[in-house]
Every structure is written in structure tokens, then in C-alpha cells.
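Reminder to self: C-alpha cells first, then the designed residues, so the page reads top to bottom the way the pipeline ran.
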């Protein structure tokens, strides 16, 4: 046996493995009508939609098969201890795909004995020890963690452990396994057959530290990879830069060398990359040693929001031309080209052909592109070549528009945005070919349109009354607009008018939460890229066109429909977008079934504080973003609190490290103050909550239990019930502040002043206390009623409930003078 790579103790995870290539097999199962739980009551999180044909086929196969141990697979890579305790291969597949990977490790016990491990997995696992099957656990539930206990016979001289991990990918597959040692024993782990080389530890250290310098790179700035400790050797670094959009296009491919003694590696100039929040897969290489890591980077050429023409129609023309010239290779760009009179553009054919492949193969998210394809066909069929026009007709007549039509795909029908887009597709296709046969359903176009009209009526009934489960979402408002703008333009009354009215409501919420060109605020669903790069989201250009100042980008999911269509946002929204000096815009309203949220906004021209007091305290946070701060001084000047949902700062789980909450807090918000009470419980994976605070446009001041952020003419204090730890290494360096403990509280106090000393003194005079049972968090502010946040009853001010009025899904807005 070689020298141990690591030693496991009780509670540690076995996460050192040799890895085979991933085996991927298209595995659709037999077409069938799916279970339909659609009740138009949308929630944030996974919906149990029954067993799709691919999973039924998987269980049928698993029940009768005999899996044989394989040892002849090539070692493609290594999984080494680092930022993730799990052995994780999470990914996204647009079609039903069976996935498998072999993993091998060597473990030595102090003496021959059985050792107990808790196995957690999503998918299925076989474990062989020294060639003998030691355990088999195959729940194969969709993205649901299942646990069991495995007793593995380990030898003092070392035992070979081989794991076969498998999963059935239905679009987003959170695929992992984790073996946690339960016994009070020390186990040595090694990878004697792995060609790790002598430099693997040095590379692992660098990979764990890797990030891009700064929050943002502008046109004249450099993209620089940054590390904490100097490289001890020359390290070759292979860097890809890829778009985070559906296209995942490779934007840059560079081979560089990090010289010994250096902590920074320039990659390129900002102007060499398009605007966007990009993914950077890194491979660090030294001799035979290779370590991989993937990080993110925001590029924004112009950091000052750009004014557009005063006239909305003129702004729409600018946006349409921008999309035609700079849109990514998706169907929205084809719409922009056709609407701009550029049917001869050579990009048009490949975009439409790729759109058709996605629809013909019934890839997930095909509904997002079938709507703009129908828009293009209805308005510009004569501009399409004959072969494309015929293929469009065939593809849309054969498409599957709902789960009552047979299929064996993994298209997701059931969330708020997908249900809308599928129903709109069904309506528009039925109206386009009223007398043709739709083969998946066996219905005529007339019947399809009638059924879609009934379904859309139910969708609007729910959303008009309850609001949106994906409120304020920079990722999903643009998807909602795919369906709503198409209805407003192409649907008969009264659907067109209902779509127009809902667009008015959404734009009202966008106006309330847009500050200096950047839409922000609490969100029903958020991803890292929406939180860390607000001006680069697909929603930002909507605010730019509607309100006259901001940024355009390459996002085209629905923006060309806005730019080319008749819909116009309400003219009176400007008063919400940019408050006058000394004014405060306040709003309260409900959103989502339950309701899922009680939203509160406090906004001045320099800062806005947005929160959700309606989240289920102690529940699983999925993608709910509950407390958000946005400063006007810089497009990236943003901050928030959350409880991380996974180990890896660059992970993609739901919830992730920064987006969503592993455990939701109880939140209360009154005026310029918000309180958050966390009770994490013993099962919480991580025992801390943390603040993300950007550096661009923000100066940080840490004083014990208080972090003060200074930005322009605004000051904000995060005050915690325990000391704050500033993270100074790794991806969170300079951005992250942790408060440790299973029970803890936070106060967020907003001030609009440039007098730092006076604000520091004011915050120091505020007393934040958490009772021993963590049932009440109280904040005493000199000269104001005491705020008490009760875990069960919510927030009171001076003993009176803060929210006593009856609220609805329509924002209740007030504008007042700041006291």
C-alpha cells in the first residue's frame, strides 16, 4: 500500500476515489400518459409528478438485473477531498438518460473488522469490498436523498472498495453518494493505482482557493484568476470560458502557466468576452497531477447604466436591433431578425434548425422556444424557406403539448412558468392549424385551442388571485413573459387582456424593486448568477426598455417579443423606479399559493431592503431568496443573508451555497429594519449562516458582531447575536461573513447618511437579543418601539403586530418623506 492520502475519523466522509468515465445511455421507456397533479397551486420546490416512463423502465430493469463487478475501466479522473464532502456528479440532461460511474478507493483499518458507514445517495449504489458484493441500495427516487447503513469488511492490510453509482436523469439530476464513517475508529485511505503525481496536494490547494479577482470585470479590466497562497511549482492551467445560458457556448479557450511564487494569473481583457456571468472550467496540471475546478465570473463592459431614448417605441426599436445583432443563438434572435426585416441573415436557418431539433426530440424547455417559433410562423411564415416552413408545421403538429398526450420525454410541465408556456403553445398551435390533426393527442387544432383556453383560464384565475410563486425572479420573469407577451399580441380576448393586465402587475413589481437600472429584491426562485450579476440577467433589459436606463445584453428568451409587440407597461411606474431625494417608497403584498410570501420593501434613491416574511420558518429553502439589499452606487453593489444549502461555494444544488436556504428563517420587516431568526436544528448540514457582501461600490467595516456596509449615501448594518467571522481565503474571501451556531439571529438596519461615525454610534446603541430557547429575537432601537420577532407569531412593534391589514397579490404602495 502507498502512503495514506487521508485518514478518516468518526463523522468523516470517504471522498477520495478513482473515477471511470461517465456512462450515459438514452433511456426513454415506453410512451405513456403521465400523472397530472396540476392544480394551479404553485409552490417553490420539487413537485411529485409520479413516475415518468424512463423511471418505470429503470425500476423494471433494476428489479431483475444482476450487476457484475467491472475492474477493466480506465481511470478518467480523481475525486479528491476538497470543497464537497459528497461524491457528486450533478448535471443537466435535456432527454431521459441513464447515468453510471465506477469509483475505486483503498481503505485500511487498524485490524480486520467490519466498519459501519451511513450511505446517502440520490440514485443507486453497489459496493464491492475486495471483489465481493458488500452492499446494494437502489431507491432510484428522483432527486430525493435516501439513506441506509452499510457494514463493510475492511482489512488491516488494506481493502479495495469499488462503488458503482447510478442515476436516472430527468433533466436536472442531483447525482451523488456519500459514505460517512459511524464508528470510532481511524481508517487510512489511499489511491495506490492512481497516477496522481507528486503535486496533487499543491494543485488541490490551489483549486480550492481559485476565484476571479473582484466582483466584476469591465471593458478595460482584466479577468484574473486569484489564489491565496503562492504556487510552489509552475502549474499549467487550462481555462475554458462558457456561457451560462442554454447555449453553453465556448467563449474562450486558453492554456496558461501559473509560475512558482505567483498568486495571480491574468486570463484576458474584459473586452475579449461578451457581457455575462460566465462559467470557467479550470484544469490545473503539474506533471502527472491534474485537478479540475469550475468557478464563475461576471463581465460587464459598461458599469454606468446607459440612458436610452425618452420614447418607449424608440427604446423598443433599439432593443430589437440589439437582439438582432447581438442575441445568442436561440429562437428569440430569429424572431428579432424576422421582425427587423433581416430574413436573409445567415444565422436564421441554423437557429431555427436547432430549435426544431429540440422540439422534435422533445427536449426539456422545448416549450420556451415553441412559443417564439409560433410567433415567427404566424407573423413571418412567408419569409421562411419552403423546407423550413414545412418542417415547422410537422414538428409543431407532432409536438406533445401536455401530459395527457403520450410521451416518454422528461419535459417539465408542472411549474408556474412551464405550465404557462405549454398552454400558450397549445393555444397558438391550435389557432394556427385549426383543422389539422395533432398526432400526439389525436385532437384537431380547434380542440387543442379550446382545451388550452380552458387551461389558461385556470392558470390566470390562480395567479391573479394568489400572485406568482416565482416572484421577482430574474430567471423566471423573462420566461413568464414568453407566454404572456405572446398572448397579449396573438391571443383572442379575453385572454389577451388578462395577459396584458398581468404584465402590468409584473412590471409594477419590477419597478418597485429596480434601483439604478438593476432589478433585485427577494425572489421566489434564485440562482447564483441572478444574485451575483443583477445587471447581466435577462430581466435587466426589460427594466432598461420600460424605464429608460440600464443595460442590454444577449438574452433573448422573450425580450424580442416585448420589443416587437404592442404591449406597453403602465406610464405611472417611474415614481417607483427612482424615488426623489428624501422620499421612501414602501410596499407590502402577498405572492404565491399559501401564501408563499409576505413581501415588504423599503426603498430610497440610494438603497433598497426587500424581504419575505411569509416563508415557512425552519422549512427547506430550495431557491427562496428571503432578504436582499441593493445599493444604487454600483450595479454589483448587493448583499444578502442565507443559510447555505451545500458545502461547495461554487456548487449548483438547490439550495446552493448562496442561493436559497438549507433552513429557512423566520423574518420580520418594519420600515428600515429587518430581523431574521434561524433555528437550524441538529440535522442541518452546515452550522452557520452568512452574509454575502459585494466589494464593488461597497466599503466593509467589521466590528465584532456587526458588519457595516457603506455605499454612496447609504449605510447598512448587519448585527448578529454572535461574533462574525470574516472569510479571508477561498471563493468567499472578502465577500463572506459567517455567524456560527444552530440558533442565531440577525438585524438589518438601513441608514441613509454619509456620517459613518454617527451611524456606528447609532447601531452600537441598538440591543439585539435572542432568548435561550431561540423562540424570540428582539431589537431595541433608541427612541423607537421595541421590535420582537417570535418564531410562531411573527413580528410585533411595541407589542402590536406589524402586519395587521388585509393584503393581496397587488402591491400596496406608499410614498412618504424620510424621517
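Designed residues (819 positions):
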Amino acid at each position: 500500500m502507498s502512503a495514506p492520502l487521508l485518514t478518516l475519523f468518526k463523522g468523516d466522509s470517504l471522498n477520495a476515489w478513482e473515477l471511470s468515465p461517465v456512462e450515459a445511455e438514452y433511456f426513454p421507456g415506453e410512451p405513456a400518459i403521465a400523472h397530472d397533479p396540476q392544480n394551479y397551486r404553485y409552490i417553490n420546490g420539487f413537485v411529485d409528478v409520479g413516475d415518468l416512463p424512463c423511471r418505470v423502465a429503470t425500476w423494471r430493469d433494476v428489479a431483475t438485473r444482476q450487476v457484475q463487478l467491472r475492474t477493466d475501466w480506465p481511470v478518467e479522473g480523481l475525486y479528491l477531498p476538497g470543497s464537497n464532502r459528497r461524491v457528486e456528479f450533478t448535471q443537466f440532461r435535456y432527454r431521459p438518460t441513464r447515468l453510471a460511474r465506477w469509483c475505486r478507493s483503498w481503505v485500511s483499518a487498524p485490524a480486520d473488522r467490519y466498519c459501519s458507514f451511513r450511505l446517502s445517495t440520490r440514485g443507486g449504489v453497489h459496493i464491492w469490498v475486495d471483489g465481493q458484493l458488500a452492499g446494494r441500495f437502489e431507491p432510484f427516487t428522483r432527486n430525493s436523498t435516501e439513506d441506509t447503513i452499510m457494514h463493510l469488511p475492511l482489512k488491516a492490510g488494506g481493502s479495495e472498495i469499488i462503488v458503482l453509482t447510478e442515476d436516472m436523469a430527468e433533466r436536472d439530476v442531483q447525482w451523488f453518494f456519500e459514505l460517512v464513517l459511524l464508528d470510532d475508529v481511524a481508517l487510512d485511505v489511499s489511491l495506490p493505482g492512481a497516477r496522481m503525481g507528486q503535486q496533487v496536494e499543491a494543485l488541490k490547494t490551489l483549486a480550492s482557493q481559485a476565484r476571479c479577482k473582484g466582483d466584476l470585470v469591465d471593458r478595460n479590466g482584466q479577468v484574473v484568476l486569484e489564489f491565496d497562497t503562492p504556487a510552489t511549482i509552475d502549474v499549467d492551467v487550462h481555462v475554458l470560458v462558457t456561457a451560462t445560458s442554454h447555449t453553453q457556448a465556448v467563449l474562450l479557450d486558453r492554456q496558461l502557466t501559473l509560475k512558482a511564487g505567483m498568486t495571480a494569473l491574468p486570463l484576458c481583457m474584459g473586452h475579449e468576452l461578451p457581457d455575462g456571468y460566465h462559467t470557467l472550467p479550470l484544469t490545473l496540471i503539474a506533471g502527472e497531477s491534474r485537478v479540475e475546478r469550475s468557478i464563475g465570473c461576471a463581465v460587464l463592459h459598461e458599469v454606468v447604466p446607459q440612458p436610452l431614448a425618452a420614447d418607449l417605441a424608440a427604446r423598443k426599436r433599439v432593443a430589437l436591433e440589439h437582439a438582432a445583432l447581438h442575441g445568442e443563438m436561440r429562437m428569440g434572435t430569429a424572431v428579432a431578425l424576422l421582425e427587423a426585416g433581416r430574413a436573409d441573415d445567415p444565422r436564421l436557418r441554423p437557429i431555427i434548425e436547432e430549435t426544431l431539433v429540440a422540439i422534435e426530440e422533445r427536449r426539456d424547455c422545448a416549450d420556451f422556444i415553441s412559443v417564439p417559433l409560433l410567433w415567427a410562423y404566424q407573423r413571418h411564415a412567408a419569409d421562411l424557406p419552403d423546407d423550413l416552413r414545412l418542417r415547422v408545421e410537422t414538428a409543431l403538429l407532432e409536438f406533445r403539448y401536455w401530459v395527457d398526450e403520450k410521451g416518454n420525454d422528461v419535459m417539465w410541465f408542472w411549474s408556474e412558468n412551464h405550465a404557462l408556456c405549454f398552454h400558450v403553445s397549445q393555444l397558438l398551435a391550435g389557432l394556427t392549424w385549426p383543422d389539422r390533426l395533432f398526432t400526439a393527442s389525436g385532437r384537431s387544432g380547434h380542440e387543442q385551442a379550446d382545451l388550452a383556453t380552458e387551461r389558461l383560464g385556470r392558470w390566470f384565475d390562480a395567479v391573479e388571485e394568489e400572485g406568482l410563486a416565482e416572484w421577482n425572479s430574474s430567471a423566471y420573469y423573462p420566461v413568464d413573459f414568453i407566454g404572456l407577451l405572446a398572448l397579449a399580441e396573438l391571443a383572442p380576448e379575453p385572454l389577451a387582456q388578462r395577459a396584458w393586465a398581468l404584465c402590468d402587475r409584473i412590471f409594477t413589481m419590477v419597478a418597485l424593486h429596480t434601483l439604478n437600472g438593476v432589478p433585485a429584491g427577494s425572489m421566489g426562485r434564485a440562482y447564483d448568477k441572478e444574485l451575483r450579476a443583477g445587471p447581466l440577467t435577462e430581466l435587466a433589459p426589460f427594466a432598461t426598455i420600460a424605464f429608460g436606463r440600464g443595460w442590454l445584453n444577449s438574452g433573448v428568451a422573450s425580450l424580442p417579443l416585448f420589443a416587437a409587440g404592442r404591449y406597453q407597461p403602465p406610464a405611472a411606474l417611474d415614481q417607483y423606479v427612482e424615488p426623489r431625494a428624501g422620499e421612501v417608497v414602501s410596499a407590502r403584498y402577498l405572492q404565491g399559493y399559501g401564501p408563499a410570501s409576505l413581501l415588504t420593501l423599503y426603498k430610497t434613491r440610494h438603497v433598497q431592503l426587500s424581504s419575505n416574511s411569509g416563508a415557512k420558518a425552519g422549512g427547506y429553502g430550495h431557491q427562496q431568496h428571503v432578504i436582499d439589499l441593493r445599493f444604487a452606487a454600483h450595479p454589483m453593489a448587493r448583499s444578502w443573508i442565507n443559510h447555505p444549502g451545500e458545502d461547495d461555494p461554487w456548487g449548483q444544488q438547490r439550495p446552493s451555497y448562496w442561493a436559497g436556504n438549507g433552513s429557512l428563517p423566520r423574518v420580520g420587516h418594519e420600515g428600515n429594519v429587518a430581523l431574521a431568526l434561524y433555528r437550524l436544528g441538529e440535522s442541518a448540514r452546515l452550522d452557520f449562516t452568512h452574509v454575502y457582501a459585494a466589494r464593488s461600490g461597497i466599503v466593509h467595516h467589521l466590528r465584532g458582531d456587526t458588519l457595516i456596509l457603506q455605499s454612496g449615501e447609504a449605510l447598512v448594518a448587519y448585527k448578529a447575536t454572535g461574533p462574525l467571522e470574516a472569510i479571508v481565503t477561498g471563493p468567499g474571501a472578502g465577500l463572506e461573513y459567517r455567524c456560527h451556531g444552530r440558533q442565531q439571529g440577525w438585524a438589518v438596519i438601513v441608514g441613509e447618511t454619509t456620517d459613518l461615525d454617527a451611524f456606528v454610534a447609532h447601531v452600537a446603541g441598538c440591543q439585539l437579543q435572542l432568548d435561550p430557547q431561540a423562540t424570540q429575537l428582539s431589537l431595541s432601537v433608541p427612541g423607537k418601539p421595541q421590535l420582537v420577532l417570535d418564531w410562531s407569531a411573527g413580528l410585533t412593534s411595541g407589542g402590536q403586530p406589524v402586519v395587521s391589514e388585509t393584503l393581496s397579490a397587488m402591491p400596496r404602495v406608499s410614498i412618504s418623506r424620510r424621517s
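The chain is about 25% helix and 30% strand.
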